[in-house]
Amino acid sequence: MTSTSTPPGTHPTSRPPLRLGLTLLHLAVLGTLGWAVIGLLLGAIGVGIGMLFLLGLGVIVLLGVFYVLFGLAWLEIERVASLYDIPAHPLTWRPRTEPTFGAYLRSLGANFVHGRMWAALGNFLLATIMGAIMIGAFRSMIALIIASFTPLTDADTVTTAFGIQIQSGYAPLLLLLALVCAGVIVGLLFLHRTIATAIIGATARESDLTERVRTTAVQREGAMRAAEVERTRIERDLHDGVQPRLVSLGMTLGLAKQHIDDRPEQAKELIDEAHTSTKAAITELRQLTRGIYASVLDDRGLDAALSAVAGRSHIPVNLDVRLPHRCDRATEAAVYFAIAEGLTNAAKHSRASEARVTVRMRDDDTGRPYIWARVEDNGTGGAAVVPGGGLDGITNRVVAAGGTIQVDSPVGGPTALEVSVPCAS
């Protein structure tokens, strides 16, 4: 299965004439409505300050103004990002960490010093000023063009924008001034683009770096938790499975050694029993090492490894794997263990009678390939992520590999597990 994606930086509105037209429209709106918004906000701030000593009502007004400013900054970032196709993350409110009033005040303080918010508001103010200048230049251009034809009328002067009067009868000069106004308009369009992309683009890069650091921290935490869960599982399997069998094997060989002279037949039976126990222990050790990492992944790939898992499953598995090429080892291992654990949960806990596994390779919006897998069963559902459980282990592995996981398991079933893990570049 293949999918198409739009290369980064391209957009249907990226054609210069349409982009300039949209910028002109944006500045025209900001040049008119922007000043009204600024006037209302300044008036609200004045009212809030004036009412500070009136039963504290001013605090409520100022708090409302702050929320409006934050929303205005969010809208400005979205406006510039959509207009110039900038991959900017939306402005997000920094929530409080605890359900207390002190935590709420700390959240307000953290959002008040949010650099992206003030940068976006500064860009809004500059765009409003440029919009007002552009409207004045546009009115002047129209007035000058009309004035160039006043020799055909009885008018002696013509009034342009900002109340400037120009003597009529100088058509070439008036047309030249109209061209200057047109140049000012075009220059403002490009100036707005330069300033807006510089301000919003810089905050977008800062936000992107912050998001990468957060993602890296989450992946690191997931890897540590996955390693801890895996270590606990190995210890449990060794303690509950292989270790008792080896202890029993030692005791059996000890009894055989005691009776090898006086009761050779009984000693022979004990040795045969020890031999059987040895083969069973070897089988358990192989299964344990297969749970740590499936060597067939390196040799034959994800399709063959999943076929082996489906063959060992206690319930019938409908396997549908379509991968045009191999992915990196970490990605394939994360997907493999997610599917293997999902099938194990389906067989042990959901009382399912059958399961279906679908694996595809897709491309994200940037053209980067990732493996998408879905495990479905017809069991009773009700699966939940609990610390140290199977789904918790899957989540930790997938997050550590930079992927995402989604579990849909309503009570009564069915259960669907979806994982998406990007391939390393």
TrEMBL record:
Catalytic reaction equation(s): ATP + protein L-histidine = ADP + protein N-phospho-L-histidine
Question: What are its GO cellular component terms?
Answer: membrane
Instruction: Write out the transmembrane intervals.
Output: 20-45, 51-75, 124-149, 169-191
Which Gene3D superfamilies does the entry link to?
Answer: 1.20.5.1930, Histidine kinase-like ATPase, C-terminal domain
Task: Write out the GO MF terms.
Answer: ATP binding; phosphorelay sensor kinase activity; protein dimerization activity
- What EC number(s) has UniProt assigned to this enzyme? 2.7.13.3
Source domain of life: Bacteria
Enzyme superclass (EC): transferase
Q: Which residues form the Signal transduction histidine kinase subgroup 3 dimerisation and phosphoacceptor domain?
A: 230-292
Q: Which UniProt keywords apply?
A: ATP-binding, Kinase, Membrane, Nucleotide-binding, Phosphoprotein, Transferase, Transmembrane, Transmembrane helix, Two-component regulatory system
Q: Which PANTHER family match?
A: NITRATE/NITRITE SENSOR PROTEIN NARX-RELATED, NITRATE_NITRITE SENSOR PROTEIN NARQ
Full protein name: histidine kinase
- From which source organism is this entry? Enteractinococcus helveticum
Q: What is the lineage of its organism?
A: Bacteria, Bacillati, Actinomycetota, Actinomycetes, Micrococcales
